[in-house]
Design brief:
By secondary structure, the protein is mainly α. 82% of the residues lie in helices and 0% in strands. It contains 13 helices and no strands.
Length: 284
C-alpha cells in the first residue's frame, strides 16, 4: 500500500512539475500578456455607448472568455506551486485581481464591475522591469515619507506667512491657513499660478514675487528632485541585490573548479593509490 501511495505521489509531483514548466514557458507568458492587453481593449470599448450598441454581446462574451482564461491560469499556478504561490506577493495580487472579477456586479456591489479594469495591472506582475519599478517605489516609502513630512512643514510655514501677508487683500486665496495651503499647492503644480494667483496678488503687493519665486523653486524643483532621487536610489539598490542574488545562485550551480596546485596533489594521490594497488596485486 505504501508503494502505491509513493507511486501516486511521484506521479502527482511529476504532474505539478510539468504544469509549472508549462506555465513558465515564454510563449505561455506572452500569450497571457496578450490576453491581458486584449482584455484592456475590451473593457475600454465597453465604456463606449456606440461600441456596446453595435458589439455589446460580443464584447461581453469576450470579457467572460478572458476571465475564464485568467481563472484557469491562476488555478494552474496554485496547483503547480501550492503554498509557494500565496507566499509570493505578486501571486496574491493576481489572485485578488481575478477574484474581484467573479464577485456579483449587481445591487450594492455594482461598483465592483468597474474594478474589472484592475486586471490590466497584471501586466506589472508579469513584466520583471515593471515589477522592479513598483518594488522600488514601495521600498522607497520610508524615504518618501520623510520628504513628505518635510513638505508638510514647508507648506505650513509658507501658508502662515502667506496668510499674514495677503489675507487682507486676497482673502479668496489666502484668507485662512487652509485656503493658503490649497493656493500654495496650486502654485506648486504650476497650474495657472502666474495669471491665476501671483499676478493678481502683485497688483496690490508688487514685491510679492520675493515670496512666491523662492517658494516655487524650493517646493517644485528641489522637492521633486528629492522624490526622484529617492526612487532612483531604491531602484539601483534593488537591481544590485538582484544581480548579487543571481551571481550567488550561478556560483552555487556552477561545478567546483580546482586550482593547478590542487590538481597536481590529486594526480599524485591517484598515482600513489595506483602504485599501491599494483604492488598488492603483484604480491599475490
Amino acid at each position: 500500500m505504501q508503494e502505491v501511495l509513493t507511486a501516486q505521489d511521484q506521479r502527482e509531483e511529476g504532474l505539478r512539475a510539468a504544469t509549472a514548466r508549462f506555465i513558465l514557458r515564454p510563449w505561455v507568458q506572452g500569450a497571457i500578456m496578450a490576453v491581458i492587453i486584449a482584455n484592456a481593449a475590451v473593457l475600454g470599448l465597453e465604456t463606449s455607448a456606440r461600441a456596446m450598441a453595435a458589439f455589446g454581446d460580443l464584447l461581453t462574451a469576450l470579457d467572460r472568455i478572458m476571465l475564464w482564461i485568467f481563472t484557469i491560469e491562476i488555478a494552474a499556478r496554485i496547483y503547480a506551486f501550492r503554498g509557494r504561490f500565496f507566499r509570493d506577493p505578486w501571486g496574491v495580487f493576481d489572485f485578488l485581481v481575478v477574484g474581484i472579477a467573479w464577485l456579483p456586479a449587481t445591487g450594492p456591489l455594482a461598483v465592483l464591475r468597474a474594478l474589472r479594469v484592475l486586471r490590466v495591472l497584471r501586466l506589472i506582475s508579469m513584466m520583471p522591469r515593471l515589477r522592479i519599478v513598483v518594488e522600488a517605489m514601495l521600498h522607497a516609502v520610508p524615504g518618501i515619507g520623510a520628504i513628505a513630512m518635510l513638505m508638510v512643514i514647508l507648506y505650513y510655514v509658507a501658508a502662515v506667512i502667506a496668510t499674514k501677508l495677503f489675507a487682507d487683500t486676497h482673502p479668496q486665496f489666502f484668507g485662512t491657513i487652509g485656503e493658503s495651503m490649497y493656493s500654495l499647492f496650486q502654485i506648486m503644480t504650476l497650474e495657472s499660478w502666474s495669471m491665476g494667483i501671483v499676478r493678481p496678488v502683485m497688483e496690490d503687493s508688487p514685491q510679492a514675487w520675493l515670496f512666491f519665486v523662492p517658494f516655487i523653486l524650493i517646493a517644485t524643483f528641489v522637492m521633486l528632485n528629492l522624490f526622484i532621487g529617492v526612487i532612483i536610489e531604491s531602484i539601483q539598490t534593488l537591481r544590485k541585490q538582484r544581480d548579487e542574488e543571481a551571481a550567488a545562485l550561478a556560483a552555487l550551480e556552477a561545478p567546483p573548479t580546482l586550482e593547478p596546485a590542487e590538481v597536481m596533489r590529486e594526480l599524485r594521490a591517484l598515482r600513489e593509490e595506483l602504485a599501491a594497488l599494483r604492488a598488492s596485486v603483484g604480491s599475490r
